[in-house]
Structure formats: C-alpha cells, structure tokens
Design brief:
The chain is an alpha/beta fold. Helix content is 29%, strand content 27%. Bound molecules: shikimate-3-phosphate.
Length: 440
C-alpha cells in the first residue's frame, strides 16, 4: 500500500526514542544463553528483534513478554542451545541472522536458517568464512546466502581474524562464537565499529579486552568458556531511529524537537556530527546511564544547511544514517559528497542506488559513485512530488516520508510495511510531531 507525506508548517514536540535495535538483539541473545533469569525493559518490539526472540525460544531459551517492551528471559546456561524443530526465520534482519550464526556455532546443533527476499540476497560469506575456520559447517557447501543449514560444534577452535569489511555484525558474530571456543578469539577491525556486543558481554560478567592496533585498527578478544550470568537491564534509545525525527526538525520551516533517552556512543554518532558540520543546530543534555551506555535528550531546531564532504572516518559510525543524511543534503546549499561507503551496496537494499533514485524522483540532482554519492543541494525545500521505491528497505521508507514533511510537494512511498522491522511507532511519532502522512 502506498503512503504519502504532505508538507507541514511545523514539526515540534518531544518523543521518547524507541529501544535500540542493536542492543535489543544482543540482550535477547545473551540473556538466552546466560545462567538464570534476566529482566529486560525498553526492548524494541520491532519485527527484526521479535524474530530473534522467536529464534532463541526455538533454541531452548524461555522468553516471555511481561508488559510493553518488558521481557523475562531464562537462559539455557550450561545445558546449552539445542536444535530447533523448524527453520529459524530471521525475516529482514542481517544483524539477527549473522549474530545468531555466531552464537549457534558453538553448540552441537543443526538449524535451518531462512529470511525474506531482501535478506536472502545479502552476503553471508563474510560470516561463514570465519565460522568455518572455527569448525562450524554450512550446507549446501559453497552457498553464501540464505537459506542455509548450520551445523554447530561444541569444540570450536579460537581464531585470530581480520575481516575485510569494518562491520560490527562480523565482529560480533566471531566474538559470540568465541564464547564457546577453545582458547582466545581475536578480531582485528580496520576501524572501530559499534561496540554494543563488547559492552553487553561485560554487563553479563564476561571479560572482553580491547586494544588499539596499528593505525586505525581496533583489536577485540575474548576467552572461550566463560559463563554468562543473568542481569536486569534497560535498553537505551536508538540513535538511528532518533535521526529521522531530528532531521524532520532541522528541515522544517518551524522545527523544534526533543528526542528523549537516546544512547550517546561515539561508535554511533556520525550522523549527528555530520549534521552539525552542515550547520544543524543540535543540543544534547546528559541524563544518565543505562545498560553500560550514556543517555542524552537530543534537541534539534530549524537550521539553514550547507553541503559538505563527509569524512570517511565517520562512515562506520553513521552506516545506517546515509538515507536520512541524503535528505538533509537535498535541503542544503551546495554539494554533499559521500565516499568510502561501499558497504551501503549490501544493506537491506543497495542503498546507494536506492538513495539516488529517492532523490532523483523528487527533483534533486544527484550523482552515483561506486562507493557513495554526491548531492547537489536545493538550498531550501526540494521539489518533491515523487513516488519512492522502498525496495524492502525500512530506512529508505522513513527517509522519504521525512523528506515529504518539508518538500515543495508531497512525497510518496510504495510501501510502509518494512518500517515495522525497526521502528513500529514511527508513523505515530511523526504524526505527534505534526507530520501529515496518509495512505494514498
Ligand atoms: C549492526 C551493524 C551494522 C548496521 C546494522 C546493525 C549491528 O551492520 O548496519 O543495522 O547491530 O551490529 P554492519 O556491521 O554489517 O555494517
């Protein structure tokens, strides 16, 4: 079903950020293998995370919803995960599937893994290769996309591995397999990526060490055989979801938004740094800590934007925010250039191509590069009036709807269903702030 976002005169109010998707997946996984019963509040109840909860249940953990965003999870502890009786469906989620592959690899079990059309087209070789080196097996031999069958092994070998891509999913997958490997597993990242797995493992009582390598390298290691202990934890707000509301305030003719309870972590804040460079008026008020992360209330208001070159050093810390950054770039004066972001080609969609198409259909001039794009900003509201192809990609859908709130003409999307994978309350939150979004 198509949806249209109409231009509105103001975009104002305060919203509590939904739970962070990355942390929600990890909380379910770690609580599900821990000894004892964990209580998790503030969990994101998006489709991606619910698929991880179902997978953990099928593998033997007890996961019960005790109230809105509140879950009680009794982990399998020393008994370990067991083979599920039917295929594990990860839906649209790269994070769910790749991290679970690592987690499952260290147990004697067999599991069939499936996903939706978008996930079934995404590369899995990046996690299969290191897991095979550790001793896990994947069938059919030579296949590097879902559907796949995983055969875990209780006697995994520890490895030292340097992934080609700077990817928190690959790092986390290997560390989670390393939990049950014999010896010390070490991952050398080209550049530090989001560190939620490391932080959350520590909160469950696991020792994880992190040190600097040469240049920008970040080396993370974990000793196998450590038992996790249950915790009580609350999931911090998702900066990637907050970015949509913050962008809405920046481009609005009368914008003033506070997004409360957002995680402030330097491995995730690239979008806010880039927006500030472009001239966005942002503020952050520290409000405390939660689940080993700092929390802030983020503020944003109407701002005149200027284009800029996005430094490649920011790419990893804003990897999910390029669609919404492209929207800011469309409103800015001058060019915004993104390079070194070739990983965008293998997200929920080929995001470089999807971003370029989203802007062009709305009258914005944009150039596509192999590893990024250049937007020629409109120095104010872009024409709009286009129908955006969302390509099973929640972040393209949400970015286009935000763009419509302040473009000259309304912006439509072909489908809004995928938004529920990461931000089920998105439409309600947008409307609360003043957006006018309707089905066509
Ligand atoms: C995630 C890591 C990122 C990001 C994804 C969530 C995670 O993927 O795009 O939405 O939770 O570890 P990559 O590690 O593949 O870049």
């Amino acid at each position: 079903m198509a949806w249209t976002s109409f231009p509105v005169a103001r975009f104002q109010g305060a919203i509590r950020a939904p739970g962070d998707k990355s942390c929600s997946h990890r909380a379910l996984m770690l609580a599900g293998i821990a000894k004892g019963t964990s209580e998790v509040t503030g969990l994101l109840e998006g489709e991606d995370v619910l698929n991880t909860a179902r997978a953990m249940q099928a593998l033997g953990a007890e996961a019960e919803r005790t109230g809105p965003q509140s879950w009680r999870i009794t982990g399998v502890g020393a008994a370990g995960l067991r083979s599920p009786s039917s295929a594990l469906d990860f839906g649209n989620s790269g994070t769910g599937s790749r991290l679970m592959m690592g987690l499952m690899s260290g147990y004697d079990l067999t599991a069939d893994l499936i996903g939706d059309e978008s996930l079934s087209g995404r590369p899995m070789g990046r996690v299969i290769d290191p897991l095979k080196l550790m001793g896990a097996e994947f069938l059919p031999e030579g296949r590097s996309q879902l559907p796949l069958t995983l055969q875990g092994k209780a006697n995994l070998k520890a490895i030292s591995y340097a992934p080609k891509q700077a990817s928190a999913q690959i790092k986390s997958c290997i560390l989670l397999a390393g939990l049950n490997a014999d010896g010390e597993t070490e991952v050398t990242e080209k550049r530090a990526t989001r560190d939620h797995t490391e932080r959350m493992l520590r909160s469950f009582g696991v020792e994880v060490s992190v040190r600097a390598g040469t240049g920008t390298e970040n080396i993370v290691s974990i000793r196998g055989g450590q038992q996790l202990e249950a915790v009580e934890t609350s999931i911090p707000g998702d900066p990637s979801s907050a970015a949509f509301l913050i962008a809405g305030a920046i481009i609005s003719p009368a914008g003033g938004v506070v997004v409360e309870h957002v995680m402030s972590n330097e491995t995730r804040d690239g979008f806010f740094q880039a927006a500030s460079r472009m001239g966005a008026g942002l503020g952050a008020e520290q409000i405390g800590d939660g689940a080993g992360e700092r929390l802030v209330d983020l503020q944003a208001a109407t701002s005149a934007l200027k284009g800029c070159d996005i430094p490649e050093t920011l790419v990893a810390s804003m990897i999910d925010e390029f669609p919404i950054l492209a929207v800011l770039a469309a409103f800015a004066k001058g060019e915004t250039r993104v390079t070194g972001a070739d990983e965008l080609r293998v997200k929920e969609s080929d995001r470089i191509s999807a971003i370029v198409a989203m802007l062009r259909v709305n009258g914005v001039e944009v150039e596509e590069h192999e590893d990024g794009f250049t937007v020629m900003g409109c120095d104010g509201p872009p024409p709009g009036g286009g129908l955006v192809e969302t390509r099973h990609d929640h972040r393209i859908a949400m970015s286009a709807l935000v763009m419509g709130t302040a473009s000259q003409k309304p912006v439509s999307i072909d489908n809004a269903d995928m938004i529920a994978t990461s931000y089920p309350d998105f439409m309600d939150h947008m409307r609360e702030l003043g957006a006018d979004i309707r089905t066509a």
